[in-house]
């Protein structure tokens, strides 16, 4: 009887323990703050468990300052930044600071649509995500 209870407890611990490890916090961006470059008004201050943030609507050719917060465990890690949908970035790579932050500027194009900015960990191992942040800017279609 004692052996059966011990086996059940051990199996339960292994099962639930593994679940906790697997669902642990992923090394992705946890929050963003986007500021309009002209007015210095905060236009988005959001959190995310996945590293992907809701689109923020901006005018054509608008410039914004972006700050992303990562887990402090990612401090000193170099990441790449890309704008696959067009627009201009202030930098293509940055190192996460000791507080877990990165900062860069982005200017959307004058074309309507969603402009994504992707933060990539080029040195991620096979168990970690390579894309660690996605910020989205939406330029509305012109009114007719």
Keywords, please?
five-stranded antiparallel β-sheet, five-stranded mixed β-sheet, mainly beta, 144 residues, 1 helix
How much helicity do the residues have?
10-25%
Could you say which structural class the secondary elements and strand pairing correspond to?
A: mainly beta
- Rg over alpha carbons: 20 Å
Backbone shape? globular
Q: Tell me how many strands there are.
A: 10
**Any low-confidence stretches, pLDDT <50, length ≥5?**
4-24
List the total number of helices: 1
Q: Strand share of the residues?
A: 35-45%
The oligomeric status of these chains comes to single chain
SSE topology string: HEEEEEEEEEE
Q: What is the makeup of the main sheet?
A: 5 strands, antiparallel
The overall average pLDDT, rounded, is 85
The strand line-up of the biggest sheet is 2-1-4-8-6
- Give the N-terminus to C-terminus distance in angstroms: 78 Å
Provide a descriptive summary of the structure in words.
- This protein is mostly beta strands and 144 residues long.
- The chain is built from 1 helix and 10 strands.
- The strands form 2 sheets. It has a 5-stranded antiparallel β-sheet with strand order 2-1-4-8-6, with no helix packed on it.
- The longest helix has 21 residues.
- About 15% of the residues have low confidence.
Brief summary of the model shown:
With 144 residues, the chain is mostly beta strands. The chain has one helix at residues 2-22; strands spanning 31-36, 42-47, 56-57, 63-69, 78-82, 88-89, 93-95, 101-107, 113-120, 131-139.
């Amino acid at each position: 009887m004692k052996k059966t209870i011990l086996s059940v407890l051990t199996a339960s611990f292994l099962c639930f323990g593994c679940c906790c490890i697997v669902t642990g916090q992923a090394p992705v961006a946890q929050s963003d703050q986007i500021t309009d470059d002209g007015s210095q008004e905060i236009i988005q201050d959001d959190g995310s468990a996945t590293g992907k943030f809701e689109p923020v609507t901006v005018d054509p050719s608008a410039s914004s300052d972006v700050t992303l917060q990562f887990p402090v465990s990612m401090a000193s890690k170099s990441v790449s930044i890309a704008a696959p949908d067009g627009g201009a970035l202030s930098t293509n790579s940055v190192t996460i600071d000791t507080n877990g932050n990165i900062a860069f500027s982005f200017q959307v194009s004058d074309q309507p649509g969603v402009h994504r900015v992707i933060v990539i960990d080029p040195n991620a191992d096979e168990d970690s995500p390579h894309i660690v942040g996605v910020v989205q800017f939406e330029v509305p279609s012109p009114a007719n």
